[in-house]
Amino acid sequence: MSTGTFVRRAQQALRDTRLRQALESATVRFDSGRIAKMAEFPDPEGLRDRGRVIRLRALENLDRHLSDLADAVERNGGHVHWALDGDEACHIVADIAQAHQVELVVKSKSMTTEEINLNHVLQELGIEVVETDLGEWIVQLAGERPSHIIAPAVHKTIHQVADLFERATGARDLPLEIPALTAVARRALRERFLRAGMGISGVNFAIAETGTIVIVTNEGNGRFVTSLPPVHVAIMGAEKVIPAWDDWVVLLPLLTRSATGQRLSSYVTAITGPRQAGEVDGAQEFHLIIMDNGRSAILDTTFRESLACIRCGACLNACPVYKEVGGHTYGSVYPGPIGAVITPLLDGLSEFPELPWASSLCGACLDACPVRIDIPRMLVELRRREVEEGMVAWPERLLFRIFGRVVRHRRLFNLAAGIGRRLQGPLVRDGRIRRAPFPLSRWTRTRDFPPLAGEPFHRRWERIAGGQ
Amino acid sequence: MKVSLFATCLVDLFFPEVGEAVVTVLRQQGVEVDFPPHQTCCGQPAYNSGYWGEARAAARHFLDVFEDTSDPIVTPSGSCAMMVRKEYPHLFEGDPKNHARALAVAERVYELSSFLVDVLGVEDVGAQCTGRCTYHASCHLTRGLGVVEQPRRLLEAVEGLEFVEMADADRCCGFGGTFAVKMADVSGAMLEDKIAAIRETGADTVVACDMGCLMQIMGALRREDSSIRGLHLAQILAGEVSA
Question: What is the pTM of this model?
Fold first, then answer.
């Protein structure tokens, strides 16, 4: 219960009315889109059940599917690399880039590459990296992290975007209209696509059956990134593999409808190896980097289902906390409900002790998740870890220890209530408490607190017990 | 029919009038009510905050208190009902004896509106009330227990009462137990949205089935000396209030 960094960042975010408006409008649009499009299925709940089973089963046999995937990719003429952690993954990319004397890299959106800070590593080697997803390019220009898994620049206003584009392109007085600004981005990025020596993409799904990776975009940048440059490097978290196309036809619409309320994203790109003989486009060389970075450690724990995530962002859009404070408040690569679970798991609970508490456990995330990941359950488990590992403040621990005593004996319970009634006397005015001491002071700063009743129910019962 | 009343610690200590209203409503339906006197708390505050040792202590006590009979256990709290029904078995995983006790008791627990509509088959309790009310759909009741329509049916059947849905009725009010204190600013922001939605309905009363939520909501309404009042569903159904 300290004024830690989440709390401070939240206070800052809450003062930003424009941010809150932007978050409200974006999250409501995506969330209601998800609800409307999922309702188009004859059995949306059944589909979510199937999606969950597919993801959990894939996790149960992860090693086999990864092995099958790697074999298939190599059969198609691609190269497979195994990276234990982010550092290794970055080195592998750097090696490939240097081997091909790459000067410019174009990237399609990949949260996995955010996770490992890939851009920074490449830039340190003097390689120019350009994000080509419009939202990602915007946050790249701003020197910021994405604040939403699907809509990285949701926190930016049109003024801020125009400003960034003017500085990036040298243009002046850009109109504050989305089509015009998009056209500016299109021209700037098109030039990069044609020049780049390497394209780096993430992976939405990796289908082991045929060694196919699938990426979805609304802008077509995924197509350019993976087919124009001679070398294509795809980076995936190891948990992304699914066994078969039959699984993919269930998961793909779950992803697009849950993410943005689209029946399908504008571009769905399935890549099976590099350009084959007789094909007219595609990279000459295809590399798939399969990265662990803490995921396998989660497999054998009660948190396994967090790996079922298909990175749709539905939980962010449904979350009443995220809606108020946005992604940057979490201070992590992955924000929102799923971020609050996987960040402590991947990066350590002691590094991110506040995240499990950044939730009222309202369950909107579980309700929204296309594969029914029980985020509230895992948040409580993480809180339990913190208590067990002594990561909680001693006054709170004492309070709950007293609670644990008092709930076992009615007389103690009544005694505690009686003490409370006596202590509250000076605080009660007009039937309410307007100012209370710490920690209730946090409550009474903005709300009244009710007083303990003079005659609690168990005493009234003595009077009304006989009645009928 | 006889039921055991689990009043909940909030109702017992802070809102005893709600407990009385629950008894009135049940008796009006010909239900005999017993109040096992040793009951305390379902343990949810400890459970949600990660203090599972203390939560188990509360849960074992709850089981001790309510195991005596096999009558339905009725409670005016969606979150407490959910705690016992859904989380007690989870709390005692690896403890077969208490797990079995928990399962047996859990299936007897009903939140009030669900008991009235699903068990007694009653939607019109014969209550009267004038004015316009709106309904805040608590998280645990709605998403945790799937009790969505029952409180609304009961309210719509109240003679003279105009019922208006608020926007995002099932969006969290920001209470979340210790969340309201630990993350007080975010909680306050969520509450602001909820109050705005309530005001937009033009209702003079906001009704809910959870005193935790109502504490939060009424806390803001009282702070601004609003004329909008917050009532538990039981209070409307008991017919003790009018506009």
Answer: 0.96
